[in-house]
Structure formats: C-alpha cells, structure tokens
Model the fold of this input.
Amino acid sequence: MFSWLVRRDLILAWRRRADVLATLFFFVIVVSLFPLGIGPEPQLLRAIAPGIVWVAALLASMLSLGRIFGNDYQDGTLEQILLTPQPIFLLVLAKMLAHWLVSELPLVIVAPLLGVQFGLSQNTLSTITVSLLLGTPILSLVGSLGAALTLGLRAANVLIALLVLPLCIPALIFGAGAVDASVNGTGSQPWLLLLAATLIVSLVFSPWATSAALRISVE
Amino acid sequence: MFEAINLGCIRGDRRLFAGLNFGIRPGELIELRGPNGTGKTSLLRIMCGLAAPAEGEIRWQDKNIRALGEEYYSNIAYLAHQNGVKDELSAIENLRISNALAGHPLTREEAGESLAEVGLSNYWHLPTRLLSAGQRRRVGLARLFVSQATLWILDEVLASLDNAAVELTRKVVTDHLSRGGMAIIATHQELALPSSQRLDLGS
Done:
C-alpha cells in the first residue's frame, strides 16, 4: 500500500513534469545569479557559496510544497486516501517520500554542479551533497506539515512559506554551517551530525503532526 | 450494524440538523432527501468519519466509529460529489491504484472487466481529463462496484449519468443489498429502488 501511494505520486509527477522542472530551474537560476551579480572574486564567492546554495534550496522547495496535498484535495482523492484502512501517518509518510524523490532529490543532484561556479573544492562539493541529502528530507517533512495546515485556504502558497521557512532555520544553520566548515577546512562532521539529529527529530514528530493537521483541514 | 444516535451538525452558526436517529441493517437501503443546503453531504461525511458531528455519535457494531478508525474504513465505500478520480491517470490506473490503496489490489484483467461493465472498454487507457463528466462518474462507479465494502455511502450517485448507467447503478445497488450489503444514497432524482427508509432533512 505504501509503495502504491509512492508509485502513484511518481507517475503523477512524471505526467506533470513541467511543474517538477520549474522547481529545478528556479534553483539553478537563483544560484547562478549570484556569481553573475557579484563578479569573479573567488574569495568572496567561496565565502558566500554555502549560504546561497542552502537558501536557494529552501526557496525552491517552497514552490513545490503546495502540491503535496493541494491537487489531491481539489479532486477528492485525498478524502479517498484518508478513508483507506491504513494508519494515516503511513500515508503521510508515503506522500513525504514521494515529494522528496520528486522535488528535492533533483536539487541534491545538481547542487554540486552549481557549486563549481563558486570555485569550491572537490571536498566541499561532496559536503554540499551530503548536507543536502540530510537536510532536504527535513524540508519535505516540515513542509508537508505546513501544506497540511494551509490546505484549502486562500493564498495557501504564501502562508506555507511563512509557516515553514522559520521552522527550517535550524536545518539552514547546520547545513550551511557544514559547507562553511568544509570551505574553511575546520571539519564539517559536527554540523552534519547536528543536521542528522534534526532530521530524526522531524521524522518523529512531523508525520504525526501532519496527520492531525490533515484531519482538521479535510473536515 | 450501523446506528446514528442523536446526531447534530452545525455549519458556521447555522444548525443543519439535530436529534437525528436512524439505523441500517444488512440488506437495507436509506434514501436521503432534502433541498440544497440542508446538510445531506455533511451527514454523509459524518457517517464516513471524515467530519466529527457537533453532537451525538455513530456506532458500527456497537462501537463508536471515531474509536474504530481504520477498522471502520475497511467496511465503507464513499462516492462523493467529486469522483476522486485523478485527471492525469487513465481510467484503469485510477481504478487499480484506488483499489490497491483500499487494501484489495486488482489485476489488470479484473480492472479491465470492471471498466467494461460500466461501458468504458474503449476508453480505459486515456487520461481521464479527456473523458466527459459522465464518463468520469463511471470511473468512480467502477471503483464502487468492485469494492468489497459492506456499507456504501453515495452522494448524488445518479448525477450526470445517462439512462444506461442509471439502470446499471440500480442493478448493482440491488445486487449489493441482496448480498446483505447496506447503502445510504443522497439524491434529488427518483431512485426507483426498494428503499426501506426515507430520511428527509430540512423538513
């Protein structure tokens, strides 16, 4: 059942791949604008790269959050999913996994390529990948909580960003901190461990809170 | 089996209904009637457990459905105003996925047969956004017809269907009842089914 729901969302994403590509291109363009705007100063670019990649990933994620439950809510399939004889947090977890695979994983994959523009070393590029691999699931987890809370509201997309972005600050600090530490050569492992801890905490609380929020929104 | 006890529903500051008592036993059909805005859909959603009643409770085999949770959901099939059909998926994908999620996966052949039964044999591979409103309704009906649920909760089930589909629906509901199934149908049309009870809201 879990795998059917993930598969369904992957098929749907494939049939509407323009939406998925829009998120990815937004990320690529935002990150690329900075070297163009600031100019070719390797020292400065290296210093700001961690923050830029991470902030851009956060903003790009906001674009896709409304779709996690929004489309299903409108055509009535969400009600049908909620009425299936499965624990609701499993269903929510499947939706979160599908969202991560569709909207976050592509960001993780292109991020190191974009890092080359900032003159980052091999080592730092792999730290970017690892930090995003640990950090983007947090965005999916916290993001779907925001999506569930704002379901069916007007201006839901803006509200999601206002709700979710502050909650993602720990992930941003730890993730960008890890990349920063790698640029300065001070060892990124403690930051990555903190990021992993944040991931575990959100993995425990978010599906449960999202389930409750969905029940309230659908009612 | 199914009992509604002293149900009340409040929408905004308006009381839609109060003190509603009824029960459904195996083989029984309830016809739910009432003008627009009298709470038919609200009542059906409460019966599904999607919404909580403002007062009263619903019991399934003498247990409150709010406490039963998922255990209750395996006994009901709900066809809402919206069909619960994904535009981007074809009819057969919609049917197979929603059945797999409901806990009884269909093979490709079984799903194809059931779509043929509702008259969609030539359309099963098309994305449902290319189908007409009536044809999408038929996809929703196909899901209902293969469901193994005991209690069918149907909202305006005959809306936008042609005569053949209406006849088919009547036949399938009658079969369901004769197998000991239960149903509640909200409708404005003439059902022409042997309903054992008529529930009038807003009278």
